[in-house]
Amino acid sequence: MFRQYKIRNYSFLLMGAVIALSIIGILIIGSAQNSSQIRQIYGLVIGGVLMLILSLIDYTWILHFRYILYVIGCLFLLAVLFFGVRVAGATRWLNIGIQFQPSDLMKLILILFFAGFFQKYEDKVSSPPVILLSLAILAVPMYLIYQEPDLSTTIVTALVFCAIIFSAGLSFRFIIGVLVVIIPLAAIFLSIVVRPDQTLIKSYQRNRIMSFLKPEEFPEDAFQQQNSIIAIGSGQLYGKGLNNNMVSSVKNGNFIAEPQTDFIFAVAGEELGFVGCVAIVLLELLIGVLCIRIGMQARQKAGALIGMGMGSLVITQSGLNIGVTTGLMPNTGITLPFVSYGVTSLLTFCMGIGICLNVGLQPKSRRVSNKAGDLSTKSLWKQDIRVPRNYDPEAHGRSGNLI
After folding, report:
1. Residue 36 lies in a domain
2. CA-to-CA distance for 213 and 323, rounded, in angstroms?
3. Looking at the DSSP assignment, which residues form a beta bridge with residue 94?
4. Percentage of the chain with pLDDT > 70?
5. Is 369 inside any structural domain?
6. How far is CA 387 from CA 301, 338, 363, 364, 401, in A?
7. Residue 333 has what pLDDT?
């Protein structure tokens, strides 16, 4: 469970970026809705402790419980549909003494599950049985999340899965075949859902798409998104400052609902300006890239997929949130990682980063030149042979044998 690690392998840059972005989020939340700030502070403290603890626990030990975690996550999602707390027309929260959002936790569980799953079937990733089995496993939580309804989390979960299975070694031939089928289907789907009498999606979901395409014809549905764009633009270079009392402020004038969650980037743009927005975007991107980098340097396939999964989750969810608030995408509610108010979201991302940090702490296989012998880089990587720093293949004969 616990192993000895070298401090030089610890990614303090990743941890620092997470803490810095979370502190910025706490400041903006305090300005958007002061009553939520103290809970977010508690969430960061608990999340920081969990991140540190998980960074020291061998992630391969955690993967042994992936099936148990998957079942527990699905049971929580099922419980939401029957006993969940309904807020603003959606039932996404479960109250078991503490109120939390299981769909947030399920994203991390699925990353861990498929990291172990695709490592087990590493040589059969592109085989139809493995692909169909993985899609069946994914379909259960995605269906439960969609029924809450939570379309945005469903989309993010699907995109993260695509990133993981691609990184696992899915055949390009299969990918091209899927794209050939999906692109025309997506065009057909879009042409159907814009019709007033369509039944594929709920009416409010269609209205959000139409308000994105024709905001002048759907002013009520485009109201929040248009005000968000105005707020971000009004911040200009340096913003109006945190905790301002201007009546025209997007948060003070009730121009957007729940500014501390889905539209937190609008508050950031108005109060911190272009400089603040760029800082947030760069920190989100830095966290995602560092997770992917850890995955690329991982010793095992599972570690690589955890890094890719967490990196793609941070980048995808950030891109979706910022795309909505800036009017680049249709309106759909989802938190901005480490910035938006939401203790469940913050704790989930902190735990995911903690596991990612442990992947980076795992010892790497040393590679040596194959110039003088039969010790190939590939064979060393697979067998995890430890080679002394001062080892000279010439001194041990042309075969390069260690024995």
Report:
1. yes
2. 14
3. 100
4. 88
5. no
6. 21, 41, 13, 12, 11
7. 83
Q: Which residues of 151-181 are buried (b: 16+ CB within 10 A; e: fewer)?
A: bbbbbbbebbbebbbebbebeeeeeeeeeee
Q: Residue 382: pLDDT above 70?
A: no
2 within some domain:
no
Side-chain-facing half-sphere of 364: CA atoms under 13 Å: 14
Query: Using alpha carbons only, what angle is made at residue 296 by residues 7 and 358, rounded to the nearest 5 degrees?
Result: 35
Assign 375 a pLDDT band (cuts: 50, 70, 90): very low
* Domain of 344, in residue numbers: 7-364
For residues 293-314, average pLDDT:
95
User: 325 and 394: one domain?
Assistant: no
Same domain? For 226 and 298 the reply is yes
Token output for 73: 């996550």
| pLDDT over threshold 90, residue 279 | yes
Residues 357 and 385 in one domain: no
| Whether 65 and 204 share a structural domain | yes
Q: Which of the pair, 252 or 32, is modelled with greater confidence?
A: 32
Same domain, 306 and 328: yes
Q: If pLDDT is split at 50, 70 and 90, which confidence band does 381 have?
A: very low
- The count of domains in the chain is 2
Number of C-beta neighbours around residue 20 at 10 A: 15
